[in-house]
Amino acid sequence: MLDLIMILFLVGFGGGLLGALIGVGGGIIMSPALAFIGFPPYVIASSSLLAVTATSLSSTLIFIKKKYIDYTLGLKLGIPAIPGAILGSFLSKDSSLDSFKILFAVLLILVAIYIIFKNRIITRLNFEFPKNLFYPLFILGTFTAGIISSFFGIGGGIIFVPILLIIFQLKMINASPTSQFALLLTSSTGLLTHIILENPEYILGLALASGSFLGAQIGSKYLHHFKEDLLRNIFSISLVIVAMGLFLSS
Fold first, then answer.
1. 187, 58 in Cβ contact below 8 A?
2. Whole-angstrom Cα distance, residue 201 to residue 48?
3. How far apart are CA 62 and CA 226, in angstroms?
4. How many domains does the chain have?
5. Per-residue DSSP letters for 86-132?
6. What are the backbone angles phi and psi of residue 171, rounded to the nearest 5°?
7. Number of H-type helices and E-type strands within the chain
8. In Å, what is the CA distance from 37 to each residue of 18, 66, 192, 210, 249?
9. Contact 220, 213 (CB under 8 A)
């Protein structure tokens, strides 16, 4: 058991570090680790979400001091995602481990494609959305982010960051912190719902959370010192490898 706790601490550290640097929930690293071990989806999602909430809190505290957060946009993202976060917690209870792995693998590949081609996507989509479509698409996107957050235990940053970059045209230095602030709202709601449903394995979650909190502190402080292109490429390749592993083990 002690070996498992140490492994999960290191997994949490890596997830927290990357979560703070890229603006996605650290659960994108932590949930697959729990899936490979063989825990049921609701345990994976809830335990990972405990760590994601710690990551978001840790990062947000640093970003508040640095004044990187756009609170108005963060609230616009986070509030519509709250109902989705509640729904995602209930949906995870009814999912099988194999279907969870397959859905997660597809999600990881989509995230990898976005991260690799992010700059091209932003350039190609640099236009104003029609006013009659903007709010319906925005609400749908944030609501979906909430479902993904609680169902997979990864936070909604994989949707929040593209919305901030493409629609609101924020720079990455502000998009990542604002996403982390919105993640804190979403992940807290999802975690509370999971707790009410008695889903988390707290020892696993706390091992991940302690590692992710430390990793997020380091990532938030040294955001400027990492080459984004290199980090993005390494992270994307890692996601594809993990996705392939999930497909093969399902």
1. no
2. 10
3. 17
4. 1
5. HHHHHHHTT--HHHHHHHHHHHHHHHHHHHHTHHHHHHHT-SPPPHH
6. -75, 155
7. 11, 0
8. 22, 38, 24, 19, 11
9. no
Per-residue confidence (pLDDT) for residue 105, from 0 to 100: 92
Length of the chain: 250
Q: How many CB atoms lie within 10 A of CB 206?
A: 19
- The CA-CA-CA angle for residues 201, 202, 206, to 5°, reads 130
Tokens (6 digits) for 34: 């729990």
Domain range for 233 is 2-249
What tokens were used for 131? 């006013």
Cα→Cα distances 5→34, 165, 203, Å: 12, 36, 8
Total-model pTM: 0.82
Q: Looking at this protein, which amino acid is placed at residue 34?
A: L
Distance CA 150, CA 88 (A): 5
Q: Say if CB 25 and CB 183 are below 8 A apart.
A: yes
Contacts of 174 (CB under 8 A, 6+ apart): 68, 69, 70, 164
Q: pLDDT tens digit string along 127-165? A: 555 666 667 778 888 999 899 989 999 877 778 887 887
